[in-house]
Structure formats: structure tokens, C-alpha cells
Amino acid sequence: MPLVTTGELVTSAATARSAVAAFNIITLEHVEAVIAGAESATAPVVLQVSENAVKFRYGRLLPLARAAVAAAERAAVPVALHLDHVQSDELLRQARDGGFSSVMYDAARLPYAENLAATRTAADWAHSQGLWIEAELGEVGGKNGEPPLDAHAPGARTDPAEARAFVADSGVDALAVAIGSTHAMTTRTATLDHDLLKRLTAALDVPLVLHGSSGVPDDELTAAVAGGITKVNVGTALNQAMTGAIRAFLAEHPEAVDSRKYLSVGREAMAEAVARIIGVLAGDGRSG
User: Has this prediction a pTM greater than 0.85?
Assistant: First the structure.
């Protein structure tokens, strides 16, 4: 089916008090696995390409983006394409040509005033192109000389009043908040601050996004969705599934040299992970 927009999926999830899963893709196998997993779960999904993934692909956005678009157009479920954690203004301005309907602009490393100014400029440009834009706010720097912490830095927590002002002044469509998750966790031991999430949900009138969700246990994810999270980003969990499956296959078949053999095993493992995570977010009991 034709590509849908991230904004449509998130708005629909917010109306239903549910969450849409957004998976970071690096290879074509990631793309195919995410779509296969979403089809298995009969659920919409967001494919995300991060700036780091673009750097891995020799700095070229379009080859992976166009492959994702082609796969999405043949999917049996709604699929959106999102450009994630963009810090480069040059990359940001490639979003429209790549088929993306949304971007996450990441200026959280900057002092608050600079973060706000850069995000406001990015939001104005994105909206002029018909793009939905997400930003993030962790902890504002300056307190006792401390630097700012982005939304996935260990120990960061988003202040509801600061978040409300940031959203109003920046004009963004969604906000990633710091409530206890961290990027690149390989153990599922994160504990979320659900009281803070409740206060953020009450303070903000835009959808809330959870980054670093691979390190969050199932019950914590389910509670986060119930508490107001409407977009859940997942990356490391797919890489763990793929790498673990390939490692096991090659240990059992040391003679293997045909990459299709082990990549297919890795792709299937990722597809299973996608379907499982979507089930957790839906609260349908598929977390086992």
C-alpha cells in the first residue's frame, strides 16, 4: 500500500491511547524484517533511518531510503518513513526527497537557548515542506554549571514546565522525553519514572515519544503506553536479535560462506522481535 505519514500513525495511536512502534533500520534485511514482523502482528509501523545509519552507509541517505520506500509500498500494513536523530541541517533538507514524512531533529546537546533556536528553525523548515517534526528535551544545562543532558543520557529527567515552554516556543509536533530509558542498552533493566510521565502527559498537548526502549522491560513498556507514550523507538533489540541468530548459525555451521544463509536467519530473528515488541505495546499478551 502507499506510504502513510508518521503524523497519521501517531495521531491515530494517541486517539486510541496506544502507541506506534518505530524501528531503526540499517540494512535491507532490517527493512524487510520490520515489515514482515509488522505484517505478522497486523499493525502499522514506522521505519526509522538515523543520522548514524546514514554515516555507516558512506554518508548516502537515498539508497537505503528508496529501498525502504519500495518495500513499504508493497507492505500489507501501513508503513511510514522517519529520519531519526538528525543533527546535520544538510541531512535534514534531504528528508523530503528521500520519501520521509517526518524528522526527529536533535539539538539536545546544545545549551537550552541554542537548542530552542535551532529546533525552531528546523520546525519552521519542516512544516514548510509538509513534514511532521519531533524533538527531544532531557535536562536543561546551567544548573550549578552542569551541561545539558539529552533525553537518553543516563540519569536525565525532563522537567514538565520546561518541556511545556520548549514545545510552545519551538513549534514541534512531538517530544521525546527523559523518564529513565537509555540508548544502546543490551540488558532490559531500565526502570521508568511513571509519576514523571504522568506529569509530562498532563503538561503537554503533543504526543510523547520514548527513546532507548530496547532496555525497557515489557511491563514497563506497557505501563508507559498506558501513561501516555504514543511512539516507542527501538533499535538495539533488532541488532541483538540479528547478531545473536547469525552468531549461533555460524557456530553451528563454520563452513558456511553464502551470506544468504546466515542473513536470512538474522532477518527472521529480527522479524520475530518486531512482532513480539508490537504485541507488548498492544498489551495483547505476546510478551512471552
Answer: yes
Report the percentage of the chain scoring pLDDT > 70.
90
Residue positions counted in the chain: 288
Give the pLDDT score at 189.
59
- Amino acid at the residue 44: P
How many Cα atoms sit within 13 Å of 89 on the Cβ side? 8
Looking at residue 147, the DSSP 8-state letter turns out to be P
How high is the pLDDT of residue 150?
A: 59
Q: What pLDDT was estimated at residue 75? A: 98
- Alpha-carbon distance of 278 to 232, in angstroms, equals 10
* Domain made up of 6-279: CATH architecture: Alpha-Beta Barrel (3.20)
Q: pLDDT of 129-152, one tens digit each?
A: 999 999 998 755 444 455 556 555
Q: What is the mean pLDDT of residues 162-168?
A: 96
Between the alpha carbon of residue 76 and those of residues 3, 44, 287, the distances in Å are 11, 9, 23
Active-site positions?
Answer: 84
User: Under DSSP, is residue 98 helix (H, G, I), strand (E, B) or coil?
Assistant: coil
Can you say whether the dihedral through the CA atoms of 200, 201, 203, 206 is positive or negative? positive
Burial of 205 (0-12, 13-18, 19+ CB in 10 A): exposed
Please say whether the beta carbons of 158 and 127 come within 8 A: no
CA distance 4 to 17: 20
Strand 208-210 to 174-177 pairing: parallel
Report the SS3 class of residue 61.
Answer: coil
Grid cell of 236 as nine digits: 538495539
Domain boundaries, the chain: 6-279
Residue 217, pLDDT score? 84
> What is the Cα–Cα distance from 134 to 58, expressed in whole angstroms?
25
